[in-house]
Each structure stands twice: as structure tokens, then as C-alpha cells.
Amino acid sequence: MKIAIFGAGVAGLSAAIELVDRGHTVEIYEKRKVLGGKVSVWKDSEGDSIESGLHIVFGGYEQLQQYLKRVGAEDNYQWKEHTLIYAEPNGQQSFFKKANLPSPWAEVIGGLQTDFLTMWDKISLIKGLYPALTGNEAYFRSQDHMTYSEWHRLRGASEHSLQKLWRAIALAMNFIEPNIISARPMITIFKYFGTNYTATKFAFFRKNPGDSMIEPMRQYIQSKGGRIFVDAKLNRFELNSDESIKGALLQDGHKIEADAYISALPVHNIKTIIPREWLAHKYFRNLHEFVGSPVANCQLWFDRKITDTDNLMFSQGTIFATFADVSITCPDDFQNGSGTANGGSVMSLVLAPAHQLMEMPNEVIIELVMKDIHDRFPLSRQAILLKSTLVKIPQSVYKAVPDVDKFRPDQISPVKNFFLAGDYTDQHYLASMEGAALSGKLVAEKLLSRFGN
Ligand SMILES: Cc1cc2nc3c(=O)[nH]c(=O)nc-3n(C[C@H](O)[C@H](O)[C@H](O)COP(=O)(O)OP(=O)(O)OC[C@H]3O[C@@H](n4cnc5c(N)ncnc54)[C@H](O)[C@@H]3O)c2cc1C
């Protein structure tokens, strides 16, 4: 079979890996010059790696890790100490360290030892979050009608722990506040966090997500005969009389014909391409229920180290939500001699919530970031900022607000030769690299079974 895939993010590339492995002819069309979508990384004119966003691999990402292994990239990421680190004012840090015990004791004992939660926080958390720890998928789905803040308060958990602990997690997961995010993804995470020790450990790519993951995926697909076209933007579909796709038209006028077509575009892009005729189906109208979360990623190069933390960090009350010194966490990039780096810190910071930043001038945003950096990392006050970059993504992952989960589409559409992949499609993970990888696997399997392969 010949299959055309549009979009070369993790979802599109994962679908391609599955399909080339089963001997099919695969062509990928990507609108940008760089592959990887939200995980893409490119070199700027000074040779520095610019990331769309700081990316972490979780222990629970079984599908993604399987693909990394399949493409020979299983050694391209490194596990870090299993601890949540919160950067506090004036260089202080507080920790949520898992005890070296089986779950849930690892989390219970670790939680009890945490110094930034009061005893009341701890008691109210254990009591309040108990249904999340013992809940199943049906319970999590049933809680999708309310925000996490509402759920937290209903359970009698403390306000301080909401602001101190869970706000950072909501911002890290979906770039939105706990009073906006649905309870469902948050309590699903608690379940993992509280019951599965290995699922919540995290790893950093040794270089960056582009070189360490996307590039090996590209090489693998091409080595198996898959063809990848960049600067190849899907514009519209031409239909047969039964509403199936006759051909796909690219922006440059090229027409593509295939036996089956997969959209691995973000939901906000595909919904503008869906032909009017298809909107008779609820399946396609439902795509309009999704709205993307704005987010920005800022990178700062310093002339000296401003931290020695070899891990992901969170912080509360700052313009950045999660961040790391990638000159420490990523040993094969951002080192002395690569681009601007001279052995000093290279901070990669995810700015969230970011709705108010999209229109703001970059210099103003960098000033705000630097103010908070000075507050959290006193060594930075003497350091020289060598360079700063900012990537703004007005619509990144879909906002996991209450009652939207039920609209996530199956990978099989009502149109017989059209399929959807992407982190927003229906699979058991929230929008993430793992969700995208799972959607790629599912779309390939469902497509082949529809065509009797
Ligand atoms: C700042 C940030 C930090 C993140 N951190 C993490 C993390 O730590 N861990 C984690 O698991 N996830 C993280 N994520 C989420 C993760 O990046 C995404 O969930 C995942 O990469 C989405 O993959 P995808 O293939 O579904 O979509 P995308 O990556 O968006 O890929 C879609 C592709 O389609 C292309 N495209 C769009 N329109 C067209 C068109 N008309 N024609 C052809 N191509 C088109 C795009 O250019 C893109 O390459 C983060 C995201 C961001 C933004």
C-alpha cells in the first residue's frame, strides 16, 4: 500500500516507523524545513541548538521508548535522580524525594519527609488524594467535568499544597493553571505518581530531542525506503463522489495520490483543512472543540555556571514553570565549544501560563525572565548573559479543560481512506510525546486492519 502522512512530529514519524516496518510505501509531507513539530530543534546562525521546548522522557513512556530502541536511540537519553526539585527565592531549593521503597511507600514516606509542605498539607493530601490513588480509568473519566482546583477543594486537600505543589505540575503538563485544567489528567498523574515508582522517573536527551530522537527516527524511516519531503505544506483534499480522498494538494501545487492518507497535523491545523462536506459528520465537527495552549520556551546562555542541579526544576510565582540547566542535564550539547556555550550555564525554561506573553515584545519577556532568574539563582547576579532566545508557540498542545476529553477522536475517521494521528487523538495519555507515539502506533494498526492487511 502507498500511504501519505502529513506532519512530521512524533505522531507522524511513529506512524511511518510502523508502516515501513510492515513493508508499505510511505511518504511524509512536512510543512516546515525541520522535522519534529513541537519537539523540533534547529541550529541558529551561531551554531546553537534552539529547542521548541524543553522535553523530558518519563519512565511510563513505554511506546516512545520502544520506538527509541527500534531506531537505535535507546542510549540517547539519561535518567536523573527521582526527585521533584522546586527552586525557591534566594537560591534555596525544596524537594519532594521519593523514598527508596516500593510504591506507594516510596511516595508516602517521601511525601512525609518533604520540608516545603506543612503537616496539615501532608495529612490533607493523603486523605484527599486517596480516591485518585485507588481510582481506575472509569473514575478518572467521571471527574472530567470539573477543574482540578474544584476537585482538590472538594476533597478537602489544603490550599497551600494546591499552590505549592500541584500548580507547578498543571503548568508543566498542559501550560495552564489548576483552576483551568480538568481534574482528570491531574488525578491520572497522581495515580502514576503514587503507585508506580518507575513511571514517574524522568530522563533528559543526551543532546537535545532533535538530534537524540527525531534524527534517528528520520534515518530509520529513510533506511527502510520511506520518503520525507520538507517545505511541503498540505493545503486541501480533492474528493471522490463518495467523499473519500482522491488526492491531496500541497501549497506549491503538487498533487499527491495514495491508497490512504494520515493527518498527523496538530488539531488546530487539520480543522482548517477538513473539507466542508465532511463537516456533516460529528466526528469532524468535534475537532472544533479543541483550543491550543500558548507556551514559550526561553534559552539563556551565561558566562559561568549559575546552578549545579543536574535535573528538571520547578518553581512557583515565576514567569517560568519548569526548566533545567541543559549544559548539565544534556552532556552532549550546550558544552564549551558548541555554539555560544563557553562552559557556563545554558538555561532552557518553559514559560507558562503564556497567554499574556504572545504579543509582548521579546526584550520585555527576557527582562522578566532575568528578574526571576536573579531571584532564584543568586550566582546569576554576577554572571554575564551571553545570549537569549525565545520561541513562542501560540497554539501548542490542546488545553485539557473540563469536558473536552470526550471529543478526542478515534484514529479511524468516517472517511474510508482518511485517518488521524496526533497527541490529541484518543489514547490513554494526555498530549505528550508518549501520546503522539501511541497515536502513531494506533493509526497504523487501525489503517491496516481497515484495509485488511
Ligand atoms: C514547550 C513544550 C514543552 C513540552 N514538554 C514536553 C515534555 O517534557 N514531555 C512530553 O512528553 N511532551 C512535551 N511536550 C508536548 C509534546 O511536544 C507534544 O505533545 C508532541 O510533540 C506532539 O506531537 P504531534 O506529532 O502530535 O504534533 P506536532 O509535534 O505538533 O507535529 C505536527 C507536525 O505537523 C506539521 N504541520 C502542520 N500543518 C501542516 C500542514 N498543513 N502540512 C504539513 N505539515 C504540517 C507541523 O509543522 C508539525 O511538524 C511539550 C510541548 C511544548 C510545546
From TrEMBL:
Q: Which residues form the Amine oxidase domain?
A: 10-448
Q: Which Pfam families match?
A: Amino_oxidase
* SUPFAM superfamilies noted in UniProt: FAD/NAD(P)-binding domain (SSF51905)
GO terms, molecular function: 9,9'-di-cis-zeta-carotene desaturase activity
Put simply, this protein is called Carotene 7,8-desaturase
Oxidoreductase among the record's keywords?
yes
Kindly state which keywords UniProt assigns to this record, in alphabetical order.
Oxidoreductase
**Which E.C. number(s) belong to this protein?**
1.3.5.6
Annotated source species: Pelodictyon phaeoclathratiforme (strain DSM 5477 / BU-1)
Q: Which InterPro entries match?
A: Amino_oxidase, FAD/NAD-bd_sf, Zeta_carotene_desat/Oxidored
- For this protein, the parts annotated as crossing the membrane are none
EC top class, as a word:
oxidoreductase
